[in-house]
Design brief:
Mean pLDDT of chain A: 96
Radius of gyration of chain A: 21 Å
Number of helices of chain A: 16
Oligomer: homodimer
Shape of chain A: globular
CATH superfamily of the largest domain in chain A: Metal-dependent hydrolases
Number of strands of chain A: 16
Number of domains of chain A: 2
Largest sheet of chain A: 8 strands, mixed
CATH topology of the largest domain in chain A: TIM Barrel
CATH architecture of the largest domain in chain A: Alpha-Beta Barrel
Largest interface: A-B, 42 and 42 residues
CATH class of the largest domain in chain A: Alpha Beta
Strand content of chain A: 15-25%
């Protein structure tokens, strides 16, 4: 494999720093190198510095990318997404525009359940094709790693189908997918009057098979009124931990149910959503070193106005993560730049804090902080180039496709050479 | 020029209908042809129908575009934009993320005035290059006509410079620009204590020269506390009308100043913004047949939550228009699909209403409803193809670059052939 070099990036945004998630004022420290350069050998970053420092180290036969006028960032790491599903929910979207609430639509058999019907009806090949389209979107938006949840199958066979699609896609796309088992996403229709039976199925049948096939790194659950209650959540996640899975949790999205405190108690890696979380929940997360994963795309897409309290979380020392929550019902964006815009305009996070939250902090939340999330020697050469000279433009403009090109392990997977 | 044909579009969204702006329930009528086809000769639409109807009419040497799996729409018409400016305002954007208000930043010499300084310092060539970049963004987002305001020069020479850039760009880009003179955008710094002198300059020097050189079709003004008051607005716009210009107005954006009623009284073509407009203003617009131009991008980007009352306006029979308000301070998006997302999620307009508001209704607001804004025989062949099978996906997904290709007068100006 020929060496690859980048020279003359207007800003090489390295995110170099301590080997741990960034907290407090560290979130704003991006370690930017102006007129930056980078040398890559065998898909791994060999050297990072000014163009003047890097140029003499470049082998004669290396491919050299001209970064003039461009910002270079670590590939975005999207730590919360639901990219595998059948169909879409444009009909419900239209109903919501006409005034129906998300909860009303769910109560009428829509919502997650409607995607479950379409996902069950889809073959593995169909799901693979649709997810591949989503994978191209992620790459096009500059993201190189995505956490991918199951949760639209809700039978043992269908949950395994989704997780196998995720695994098989690692052959077809260069986007890295981190699999999470979310069998406890909703109670499926056929178990409406037998909720406990479904929970037993998740614990006694799905979990063991998922683990046996090595199909997931994490287990997640939707802890929310009408979905899974505290006792059930405790049982499912304790079982998952017993199987060696790490934990992520959907908490405090629609109601403040003490989800943040429960995530802290259970030692989850992340507590996700947190729109309704108050000061006590934030303190609980801080004490237990749980990373909050904030999903402003879903607040926006549901037409709500209560965003998670990002500033309080940063001030409390939490290692905040931003993610898309890409899914067909409540957050139909695969774009981290769009999330950076939402974070700045709706949650008062600066563009720098947003970039940290969607790169190095996200990488640590997926236990990959040692290999991705920053541009430092020894790390995997996942990076994205954008057609702008200042990284802040990624949050400042919105709806503009600024991505110039995207590289995974030192190979270009989107965009043209330059 | 060879004939061009489109066949097998999943949805050919024609917007065919009466030769006037659409009101009330008409806003939701898109006149969609499934498996649609279109024949184009000399840049003009010759026939529209099902693929079965169109196929036999296609000459043997025509170029045939395969629309399978794609939605085809009239090119979007963006009826309110400020695409000519120097620099950007990322620093202020960061300050706002840190908690400063738009008004505070403006009071400290930022806001419009900071862009005025950068725009005055830029040469005509520099402005042309930057505006050309913006033009590419508009085309990439599926827009083929953009209203383009001056207003960042605020001296006679600089206002003329901006309008000349707009005119000269018509040679360099296929994006159609409709020029509007907005000398009354703000009181420039050097006139802070001589406001009336600046108004005199606008009326007695700028307006006559703009008209003499034929540089504008419309005159606009920012009617708002701290900018231009009612008496001044009346004088400037009456003078503009006397010179034969048509009127557009920025009204009721930050405060309800009775701007809608004033627009009605002055016979403006459009009243734009209207975030603070109440029922009486809506009724005034209805009585005078003024088209409201709604700009949800600026509400979003300023982190505000009060959107214009789109539903009340539709119910009152107004021919609603949606536009981007693309500008460096308060709406940094050139994307109509992004605006369709905002309209659906934040203003409860359906995707169909949004599409009508950003095509045929926008075209009529610029006195171009007879030539663009719908796909009907005799109209200019401006159209955009999107990588989705249902037009609603354009509002449903956000931050996703769905544009497949864009055509102006029957020639492809963005994307690949298919």
């Amino acid at each position: 494999m020929k060496a690859l070099a980048v020279l003359h990036a207007a800003q090489l945004v390295t995110l170099a720093g301590p080997a741990r998630p960034r907290v407090g004022p560290e979130l704003a420290e991006l370690a930017i190198i102006p007129d930056g350069g980078m040398l890559i050998r065998d898909g791994v970053i060999a050297a990072v510095g000014s163009s003047a420092e890097i140029a003499p180290q470049i082998p004669a036969d290396a491919e050299v990318v001209n970064g003039s006028g461009c910002v270079v960032l670590p590939g975005f790491v999207d730590a919360h997404a639901h990219p595998v599903f059948g169909g879409n929910r444009v009909e419900e979207f239209e109903l919501r525009a006409r005034g129906a609430s998300y909860e009303e639509i769910a109560a009428a058999g829509g919502g997650i359940r409607s995607t479950v019907r379409k996902t069950r009806a889809a073959s593995e090949a169909e799901l693979r094709a649709q997810t591949l389209k989503h994978a191209r979107w992620f790459l096009q938006c500059g993201t190189t790693t995505v956490e991918a949840k199951s949760g639209y199958g809700l039978t043992t066979a269908d949950e395994l189908k989704l997780l196998r699609v995720i695994r098989s896609l690692q052959v077809e796309t260069r986007l890295e997918l981190v699999p999470t088992f979310l069998g406890a996403h909703a109670i499926p229709e056929e178990f409406t009057d037998r909720r406990e039976e479904y929970v037993q199925l998740v614990i006694n049948e799905m979990l063991p098979q998922v683990v046996q096939e090595g199909l997931a790194e994490y287990c997640d659950i939707f802890f929310e009124r009408g979905y899974f209650d505290e006792d059930t959540t405790r049982r499912v996640l304790t079982a998952a931990k017993g199987h060696g899975l790490k934990l992520r949790m959907h908490v405090d999205q629609l109601t403040n149910s003490g989800g943040a405190a429960l995530a802290a108690e259970l030692g989850a890696a992340t507590a996700d959503h947190l729109e309704q979380t108050e000061a006590d929940g934030i303190q609980a997360l801080a004490r237990a070193n749980v990373q909050p994963v904030l999903l402003p795309g879903s607040v926006y897409a549901l037409g709500k106005t209560r965003y998670p309290r990002a500033r309080e979380m940063i001030e409390a020392g939490l290692a905040v993560v931003l993610a898309t929550d890409f899914n067909p019902g409540s957050s139909q964006t695969p774009s981290i730049p769009m999330v950076l815009s939402l974070a700045a305009t709706q949650m008062k996070m600066t563009p720098a804090e947003g970039v940290t939250a969607a790169t190095i902090n996200a990488a640590y939340s997926l236990q990959r902080g040692d290999s991705i999330g920053s541009l430092e020697p020894g790390k995997v050469a996942n990076f994205s180039m954008f057609d702008c000279a200042d990284y802040r433009e990624l949050a400042y403009y919105f709806g503009v496709p600024l991505t110039h090109s995207v590289y995974v392990r030192g190979e270009r997977v989107f965009g043209a050479a330059s």
